[in-house]
Amino acid sequence: MTADPTELGIPQDAMRRLAEMRPGQATSLFTSDLSVNEFLLVREAGFRPLGLVLGSSIYHVGFQVGRWNKNQELTMLSQAMYHARELAMTRMEAEADQLGADGIVGVRLDIEFKEFGSDLAEFIAVGTAVQADSGEGWRNNKNQPFTSDLSGQDFWTLVQAGYAPLGMVMGSCVYHVAHQRFWQAMGNIGQNVELPQFTEALYDARELAMSRMQAEAEQLHAEGIVGVQLRSHGHRWGGHTTEFFAIGTAVRPLRADHTIPTPQLVLPLTDR
What is the per-residue pLDDT for 60? Predict the structure, then answer.
């Protein structure tokens, strides 16, 4: 089971809402942000929606000064962006746990900077908690509901192919790209030329984000990660500081001896 939801900062109003949605209640009904097609495919895959679950964290993102002429990770900012997302995800998982869910599908993880503070951002995780009809164990090796940002269509395909989602895995790296010296900038005017300093910086930053995402998947004993997205966000730090964020769904085969059948090639009929 996940941690006590009250210790995670889940408000009482949310607890009352979850209690009303819990299966077996006379007034229980599910809520979902799945489209109609996604809802039907999730049901066909053998899962019943329980309710919309969410987690939120308003976080003060600190300031870190980097040397203007040096490529470097801003570790304090990397840690802040990761921890804030982790808080939102953990609270969403705790809500799903209160519903007795096996997992959460269609997860969205968003950031919204607030006007009442230039350094304040709300990190929001939203998804639909689901329960397996079969009663089989679908939770991950940490006994937590699985999380997945796959669409309903991709989730159905994954299950039909004999794979199970374990959890969303992510990695973050906030990186400062060194400013180009004035004489270098002037020398590049009107030329098609690679800027090795910039290339190396962005390559390194993406690699750090990817390796951290892979480390999370290894902790879940995953076979691989599907649906990986590698995003870059400037946020409000200026043109030379960027966050590189890697996210995907870690998966495992449902059986140790599982193999995906090879599709048969059907040749079209030709006129003779």
Answer: 77
